[in-house]
């Protein structure tokens, strides 16, 4: 049984975004429409699973998919440690007292609020799309291989997405941990974290004595050595973390935060001081790049518009500086282009046809010379049947259903992990 390709992927994606936005307009309607939409999409997907013909390629892509997921989760762990570290090293007093950096992008948005029509300003302010939307849009894209909307294997696309995301998160953590930038929201750290108010002894020795004195900065440049004494502060709390005790100096836990380093990291979230570049925008850009390359069409243009809308909201609501969003956009584009080797270069069935054609090439040429059209038809039919037989030699239906559950569970874990480490 041959199922036609489904052209409505863009409609399904935009319907998901639109129905989820209804929660801000009419929560009662949202409670009715969202379960109905997800039930419909799930039912259609389940119906298509038994007729999916690319399970062999999906199973070949399973190992890269799992490896990419492990790599990404490791990158998220490193990022969480880095987020907590850059928040804790200077203490809460620094976060409260240090003014935000001047941001010309936010000034521009404030100026536009005075010039644009009120209804357009309200659209720009509206919370149309967030981090979880972009993650779900990618999951919709990946599962659309069931409908022949994008090229199989879906796990290959998922592996590339997570591998690229992991590299992006690692580069991001290395970037923002290198130079600590003041938050665009000075109250954030005090409201979310229980780190000591005073700075770590590293900052006391190498930063605090010189930061507010121009002459001291000039002198330390000339001497190239720390010369000022450190202040008198209470000793940091030192829990017993066993083999993970080396993290204490980086995370600076408080007694009220419990004795588990893992629970401490779960509270790190997206941090408070500026994290260059925006992790939210990295997810958005990679989702848009995946849509553009794998599916294209008008829906891809709409997703890029949503990326831009999300970027200006990040700046408008002071979750990030403008530079964070700009850098995330071009880093995301470049990273996606660089990791293109994970995307299958050609369709597997096309390769099988070419292999079969090579085997019967001499017979086909001879039949053409003899003007034996019946023989030519039979040989071409043999090529097509051989390709279909190779496709149909897949795992059993029970194995297919089990694999579907495993794939969905893995993607759900990815979704929850990204949501946990979101940066607002």
Annotate the secondary structure layout.
Elements: H1 9-25, H2 27-48, H3 55-60, H4 62-88, H5 91-97, H6 104-115, H7 118-125, H8 131-143, H9 154-178, H10 188-192, H11 201-206, H12 208-211, H13 214-223, H14 248-251, H15 261-266, H16 279-294, H17 298-316, H18 322-338, H19 348-359, H20 361-369, H21 373-392, H22 397-420
Helix pairs in contact: 1-2, 1-8, 1-17, 4-9, 4-22, 8-9, 8-16, 8-22, 9-16, 9-18, 16-17, 16-18, 19-21, 20-21
GO molecular function: ceramide cholinephosphotransferase activity; sphingomyelin synthase activity
Organism: Morella rubra
Transmembrane segments: 35-55, 61-78, 128-147, 159-184, 282-307, 327-345, 400-420
């Amino acid at each position: 049984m041959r199922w036609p390709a489904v052209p409505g992927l863009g409609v399904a994606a935009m319907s998901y975004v639109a129905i989820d936005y209804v929660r801000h307009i009419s929560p009662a309607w949202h409670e009715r429409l969202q379960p109905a939409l997800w039930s419909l999409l799930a039912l259609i997907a389940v119906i298509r699973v038994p007729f999916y013909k690319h399970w062999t390629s999906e199973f070949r892509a399973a190992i890269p998919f799992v490896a990419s997921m492990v790599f990404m989760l490791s990158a998220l762990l490193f990022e969480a440690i880095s987020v907590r570290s850059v928040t804790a090293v200077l203490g809460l007093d620094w976060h409260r007292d240090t003014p935000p950096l001047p941001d010309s992008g936010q000034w521009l948005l404030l100026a536009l609020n005075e010039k644009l029509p009120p209804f357009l300003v309200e659209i720009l302010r509206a919370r149309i799309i967030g981090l979880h939307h972009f993650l779900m849009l990618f999951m919709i894209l990946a599962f659309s291989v069931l409908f022949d909307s994008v090229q199989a294997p879906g796990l290959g696309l998922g592996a590339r997405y997570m591998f690229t995301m992991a590299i992006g998160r690692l580069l991001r953590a290395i970037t923002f941990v290198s130079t600590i930038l003041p938050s665009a929201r000075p109250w954030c750290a005090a409201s979310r974290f229980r780190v000591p108010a005073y700075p770590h002894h590293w900052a006391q020795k190498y930063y605090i004595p010189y930061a507010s004195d121009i002459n001291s900065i000039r002198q330390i440049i000339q001497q190239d050595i720390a010369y000022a004494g450190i202040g008198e502060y209470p000793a940091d709390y030192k829990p017993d973390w066993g083999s993970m005790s080396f993290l204490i100096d980086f995370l600076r836990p408080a007694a009220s935060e419990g004795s588990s380093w893992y629970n401490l990291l779960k509270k790190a979230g997206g941090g408070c001081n500026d994290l260059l570049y925006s992790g939210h925008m990295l997810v958005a850009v990679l989702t848009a790049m995946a849509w553009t390359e794998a599916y294209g069409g008008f829906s891809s243009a709409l997703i890029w518009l949503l990326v831009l809308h999300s970027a200006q909201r990040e700046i408008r609501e002071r979750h990030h500086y403008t530079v964070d969003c700009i850098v995330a956009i071009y880093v995301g584009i470049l990273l996606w282009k660089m990791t293109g080797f994970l995307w299958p270069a050609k369709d597997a069935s096309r390769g099988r046809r070419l292999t079969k054609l090579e085997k019967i090439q001499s017979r086909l040429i001879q039949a053409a010379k003899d003007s034996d059209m019946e023989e030519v038809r039979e040989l071409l039919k043999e090529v097509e049947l051989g390709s279909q037989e190779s496709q149909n030699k897949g795992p059993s239906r029970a194995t297919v259903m089990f694999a579907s559950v495993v794939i969905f569970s893995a993607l759900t874990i990815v979704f929850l992990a990204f949501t946990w480490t979101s940066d607002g």
